[in-house]
Every structure is written in C-alpha cells, then in structure tokens.
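Quick entry, no commentary yet.
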Amino acid sequence: MASPLEKEVNQLHAEICAGLADPKRILILYALAEKPCNVNELASYLNLSQPMVSRHLKVLRERGMVQANRVGVSVEYKLGDIRLIQALDLLRAVLHDDLSHRAELVGALGEE
C-alpha cells in the first residue's frame, strides 16, 4: 500500500503528465523556451486564437510549468523550468527510436 507521501508524489506526477497531454501546450512550452511572450505574441507565433492560448496557459500555470509576470499592462509568460524541454526532447528521442524500429520491421516484412 502506498504511503500518503507516495500518493501525493504520484498525483503531482499525473498532473504534470496531464499538463503535457495536449500538443498545443507542448508547442507553447517550446515557444516559451525560446523567449518569454505575452498571450497575443504566443497566439500570433503559434497561429492559435488568443482565448485558446489563454486556456492552455492557465493549465500550464496551475501545474507550475510556466510563470506569469506582469510587465506594464501586459502579462509575460516564461518557461518554469528548462528541464521540461529536456524531458520533452528525451520523449521525442524515444518516439523517434520506436518509429525507426517499426519502420525497420515493416521494411523487413516487405522483403519477405
């Protein structure tokens, strides 16, 4: 049986994963890794509506993945931790290797 602390850690882990569950949120994280932006800049850069970007930023902010700072009348968002991008890059490398392996299998089947 899991301890209360272990349950808490598992819940936090699940929340981080849920934050990464939408491809648009991943795009937002990569954009913010390049430079801090406000909502309108992100919407324009990613060709998404401002309300959609705002909703995704709310999810990311609630999970501590992005930080919001008021700059004059605007709110500027920045990546909460560069390790998020490192983790996403690692997951992409795993996906790449898996897809390459599957392509090799399909190629081998085609040769039979």
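second:
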Amino acid sequence: MKNIKLVVNNDLKKEKEKFFIKKELQCILNLYAKMVSNGTWKDYSFSSGLKEISFDVYQRASDRPVLRILKNLKPKYYNEKFLIKDNNGNILKKSENLNQLINKTSWNNLRLVK
C-alpha cells in the first residue's frame, strides 16, 4: 500500500495518435485500391515504431516494400508529419496534410529502380 501513486492529469490524446485516424486510413486504402486495380501494387502491411507508423506497399509479397507512407509521430518540422519514402529510405515527398500529399503525387511515375 505504500507504493500507490495518484495520477491527476491523465491525458488520453497521446494514445489516439499511435495509429492512423479513420480519415487518413480511408484515404490511404482508397489509393491502395486504385493502384491494385492498375496492377501496380500487390500487397501491403503496417509497421509501427516509437516515432512513426507506416503503410508499406509491395509489388510482390516476398520483396521489401517498394514505398512507405509514413505518419511521423514526433516531427521536427510542421511539414514532416506525413512522408513518402522509397525502398532505400529516401524521402520522396513530405507534407503536413495526407490528402494533399496523396493527391499531388504522381503515383505512376514512382517505380522501383534496381
């Protein structure tokens, strides 16, 4: 009984930001459905860490992800909240708004370079 602590300011907002919210996920999955119907993308997965959550896109299930759409949980700058990275980890595009990032990117020109 001596080790009981009282938490007064329990902030639940931090727990909500640990994944994509519904509108973000809907926007990403709409893009994924469009690219699957084109035959460009084949599979996807989610991965998460302490600083970022990513939607990984694959051309084949056995390969590394071709593209990653990331939500940066602790951005250094305001325009680095959402990122698109290639399979080498290079940042292709970044924005503070996911809808603008997805709509302004020409997805057919982003291809895997060997």
